[in-house]
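Review form for a predicted model. The reviewer records the input and the model, then writes brief findings.
Reviewer: anonymous (R2)
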Amino acid sequence: MGHNLKSIHWAIVLIVLGICIAFAGCTGYQQSPGPATTPQTQVPGSNTVTIQNFAFNPPAISVSPGTTVTWINKDAVDHEIINDASGSTAEGAIFRSPVIPRDGSYSFTFTSQGTYPYHCSIHPTMKGTITVQ
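Model under review:
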């Protein structure tokens, strides 16, 4: 008799699970497509870059000379921003942040026109660009 009760119990569990799965499929729930794959450029004068999900958002911005750009770390891990002027080393870099903890920020004022590619020295696949025009 105990074996039959176990079988009935698991049959009910499977039926309820099937109903839940079927209901979830009928609700119209759609998963977010994730971050855009094309770089987004803000209008000149915009000056905030959010660090989130191991990416700079937006990855490319344009600012006017004299604009201070601020990076805000919304990831749970530390990041460090360095200009690509000299690869991944600090020598020759125009700007380099200290390690930025979660909810920390770093600011740099761009005074000269040009294109300034940068990356996270801790996570080198994270890349961004500031264009000063």
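Findings: The longest strand covers residues 67-73.
Further findings: Confidence is low (pLDDT under 50) at residues 20-45, 86-90.
Recommendation: see findings above.
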